Amino acid sequence: MNIDWKSMPFGYYKTKVNVRSCFRDGEWGEIEVSESEEVSMHMAATSLHYGQEAFEGMKAFTGKDGKIRIFRWEENSRRLQHSASGVLMQEVPDELFREAITKVVQLNREFVPPYGHGAAFYLRPLLIGTGPQVGIQPAKEYLFLVFGTPVGPYFREGFNPVKIQIARDFDRAAPLGTGTFKVGGNYAASLKALKRGRDEGYSSVLFLDAKEKKYIDECGPANFFGIKDNTYITPESTSILASITNKSLITLAEDMGMKVERRKVPIEELETFDEVGACGTAAVITPIGKITDRDTGKEYHYCPDGKPGPVTTKLYQTLTGIQLGEVEDRYGWNLIVE
Ligand code: PLP
Ligand code: COI
């Protein structure tokens, strides 16, 4: 196999197999290994009509020692359960989740990027309602599927400052809506804003809180953070996804002797940060160099020398160091796949 690991995009790359389990007659079935890239289901399946679907995004890495590590799988499993409960789907038990992700890695080993190329093996667990309903009701049958694909950086800039656009004229999720669930509808709601932002030269968009348009909410497919006065500040909101990367950075920032504040972040505060960034599994830590408010034309500038700031850099090195087995995994975040 001849894969150019160094220039991998963040996209779909066919691997050998995926794994599946069906919930039917009140129980989850045995895990099946499949070579098919397709899913066949009833045309009245609830995932197709009523948005009964949720997914996860997580990564496996080949470490310096050649071992493959999956990062914080229990957190993703718990979050999929949270998303499932949010749209009344059958929850996937931790054991099934763990067995499925482990199998996908083991059976696709040759597609897990080797150490040292900046690429990772992205795992995409997916849960969908497959049973038919015409009235608005939850399905009785579900499919849990996990596929994997080797990926490079989500933002083509890699660990370099990106430009972000504030899109006030779109809401990603409502305060009492589905924002905390990783369900497809939230991504559907963000597509137009993201496409326009990209067309206008930005890597991603920053959504404000939908009710008051006063506070920073979600940063495209990532959480937002700002750094000032030795403090790591990240929005508290009922409409953002609880990022596992953000949770990890909070721990690492505290380890670095920083204060942490999870609270509402008013838009005006953007003026006061020394460093700002976006974080997520795909985005890793993406430093932000410029934020433009599309409606007011106001610009906020960071990274004056064109490079990521010192705190963002240290957080990035520590996080990726743990994932790659270069920095001690003090909290037991990695699952080593034998
Ligand atoms: N917010 C949204 C909307 C996302 O899609 C993601 C990606 O999963 C994140 C935040 C970051 O979450 P995590 O760090 O768990 O990948
Ligand atoms: C992730 O970071 O895993 C995501 O889910 C982002 C994605 C939707 C591309």
Write structural notes for this entry.
With about 350 residues, the chain is an alpha+beta fold. The chain contains 6 helices and 18 strands. The protein has helices at about 45-50, 75-85, 95-105, 185-200, 245-255, 310-325, and strands at about 20-25, 25-30, 30-35, 55, 60, 70, 120-130, 140-150, 160-165, 205-210, 215-220, 225-230, 230-235, 260-265, 275-280, 285-295, 300, 335. Strands 1, 2, 3, 4, 5, 6, 7, 8 and 18 form a 9-stranded antiparallel β-sheet that branches. Strands 9, 10, 11, 12, 13, 14, 15, 16 and 17 form a 9-stranded mixed β-sheet that branches. A hairpin with a 5-residue loop joins strand 5 (about 60) and strand 6 (about 70). It is globular and about 55 Å long. The mean pLDDT is about 95. It binds pyridoxal-5'-phosphate and 2-OXO-4-methylpentanoic acid. 2-OXO-4-methylpentanoic acid binds near residues 281 and 282.
